[in-house]
């Protein structure tokens, strides 16, 4: 805990403030941050290390940049360790969107992985996934028919991609798709860091009657390299209760129902 003027600021609060500055300015400088928050440069370097391990910034000479500006995609383990409680709440809320029976698509992602683990055992469902880890969790559930979309496995996200995924999706028509995203904004819609994954996400949206997006507040208002859909393509956005109420209202005005779990 550090004291800024007469205000006491905890390390986590300072780190979130640093991240907000990095995203608004495109880059932050260690010396300038130390002056801004009245702490030592060593403290700022520790803060940047924490943020880098969380997968939200990348250290560069003299400072850091947000990963969105670098086109950099954090490893799966790093993303899975961030916003864990919020992701769990989002996954639980998403259960309300499950059909009583029928078919669903579950996109690869760290929040959708929690959703997969929570799927009930009292419904007969066909579950289509493009994630070998999702399939491994679901395969032993006797009430589920699990279909995995084959293809190249991206090591960074463990998602299957490319033509062997896209071809079967073109012939599918499911009740609900539970989607993941790297970024979600009113201006740019739904974005991700990889062209191949964007193509799969786009095909999943086109193959479903209803689309539910699972995205914690760190995804909202930020854009990544490749666009795969509009907010109007989504029926329900399930996020966490930490999302600003005004921003939530703006998102809802752009199309989807917004649920803050």
From TrEMBL:
Matches recorded under SMART domains: DeoRC (SM01134), HTH_DEOR (SM00420)
Pfam families: DeoRC, HTH_DeoR
Keyword annotations of the record: Repressor, Transcription, Transcription regulation
GO MF assignments: DNA-binding transcription factor activity
Domain HTH deoR-type: 11-66
Highest taxon, organism lineage: Bacteria
Record flagged with keyword Transcription regulation: yes
InterPro entries: Carb_Metab_HTH_regulators (IPR050313), DeoR-like_C (IPR014036), DeoR_HTH (IPR001034), NagB/RpiA_transferase-like (IPR037171), WH-like_DNA-bd_sf (IPR036388), WH_DNA-bd_sf (IPR036390)
Role of this protein: Repressor of the lactose catabolism operon. Galactose-6-phosphate is the inducer.
Descriptive protein name: Lactose phosphotransferase system repressor
The species this protein was found in: Actinomadura luteofluorescens
């Amino acid at each position: 805990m550090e004291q800024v003027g007469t205000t006491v600021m905890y390390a986590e609060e300072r780190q979130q403030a640093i991240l907000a500055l990095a995203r608004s300015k495109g880059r932050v400088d260690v010396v300038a941050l130390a002056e801004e928050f009245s702490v030592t440069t060593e403290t700022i370097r520790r803060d940047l290390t924490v943020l880098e391990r969380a997968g939200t910034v990348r250290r560069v000479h003299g400072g850091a940049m947000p990963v969105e500006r670098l086109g950099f995609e954090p490893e799966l383990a790093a993303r899975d360790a961030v916003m864990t409680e919020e992701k769990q709440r989002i996954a639980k809320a998403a259960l309300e969107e499950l059909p009583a029976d029928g078919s669903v698509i579950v996109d690869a992602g760290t929040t959708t992985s929690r959703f997969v683990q929570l799927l009930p055992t009292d419904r007969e469902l066909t579950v289509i996934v493009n994630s070998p880890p999702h399939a491994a969790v679901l395969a032993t559930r006797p009430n589920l028919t699990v279909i995995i979309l084959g293809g190249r496995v991206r090591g960074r996200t463990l998602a299957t991609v490319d033509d062997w995924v896209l071809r079967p999706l073109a012939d599918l028509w499911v009740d609900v798709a539970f989607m993941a995203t790297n970024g979600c904004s009113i201006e740019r819609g739904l974005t991700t860091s990889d062209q191949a994954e964007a193509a799969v996400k786009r095909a999943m949206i086109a193959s479903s009657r209803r689309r539910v997006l699972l995205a914690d507040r760190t995804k909202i208002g930020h854009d990544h390299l490749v666009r795969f859909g509009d907010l109007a393509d989504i029926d329900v956005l399930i996020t966490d209760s930490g999302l600003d109420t005004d921003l939530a209202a703006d998102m809802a005005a752009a199309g989807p129902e917004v649920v803050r779990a």
